[in-house]
Amino acid sequence: MISVDINQLYGWLNAFLWPFIRILALLGTAPLLGDGSIPTRVKVGFAAIIAVGIAPTLDPMPDLPTGSFAALWLAVQQVLIGIAMGLVMRIVFAAVQTAGEFIGLQMGLSFASFFDPATGANTAVLARFMNNMALLLFLALNGHLIMLAGLIRSFDVLPIRVGSLDTNGWGVLFEWSSQVMVSGMLLALPLIIVLLTINLALGILNRTAQQLSVFAVGFPISLMTGLVLLATVLPQSSSFLSRFFEEGYSTMARLAQALAGGG
Question: Which of helix, strand or coil describes residue 115?
Fold first, then answer.
């Protein structure tokens, strides 16, 4: 007769629960996999399948009663780790959307916005377009698989254990968040320079020929020039985005090492 005691049940439950919490936290915040259009049940089921698959390969879990305060604190730590690693890649796409906001402002398309379910706010059409382009490139480069592989490797660098997370890890996340403005501006810079030059020329024209309605002439010129530049520049931005994705994967690894106290 097979007998199972409470300690064995705790061991089986913990072997599944702690990895599941970290994986689900990443799926809730990561780009593409954490999109609001994906049902919550699908995310939970996907996280459960991954947790069941990797649980036998992980180090032994802490011997904690699942209903104790120590286990609750350990669960909170796993949530924070998963959210932080998901935010690293979310910042990459936030930078792409910021570039779209900058370009749309110079083209005169900043007023064209609609509600974005993924962000829960109004988003410029051009920012949404560039975000979709980055998502397609991310999918084509198997970025979602590399991101999940980085999460699974984090269990080796940052194993599930009783203790506290190193505060230097949050410094890595805050430092990486500056890429929203830096990389967003770099991505939009070629178009911004040309469009600012056109606006400067129109301003000079308005001073020299005041009878000319610059507002009636300038908007079509800025819009047409911006569309031509987008058709020229966006196909060449794949190399920039590919390097940006690679930096995101490296930052995920640095974040896990820093949270573990390794640098």
Answer: strand
Do the beta carbons of residue 23 and residue 82 sit within 8 Å?
yes
Q: Bridge-partner residues for 113, per DSSP? A: 124
Question: In the chain, what is the straight-line distance between the N-terminal and C-terminal CA atoms, in Å?
Answer: 51
216: helix, strand or coil: helix
pLDDT digits (tens, 9 = 90+) for 171-204: 899 999 999 999 999 999 988 888 888 888 877 7
Tell me how far apart the alpha carbons of residues 76 and 37 are, in angstroms, rounded to a whole number. Answer: 26
Contact status, residue 113 vs residue 136, Cβ threshold 8 Å: no
pTM: 0.85
Tokens of 8: 């064995």
Angle between helix 238-259 and helix 143-157 axes, rounded to 10 deg: 20
Question: Residues near 238 by Cβ (< 8 Å), separated by ≥ 6?
Answer: 137
Residue 124's closest CA among 136, 142, 112? Answer: 112
DSSP calls for 236-249: GGHHHHHHHHHHHH
11 vs 17: CA distance, rounded Å: 10
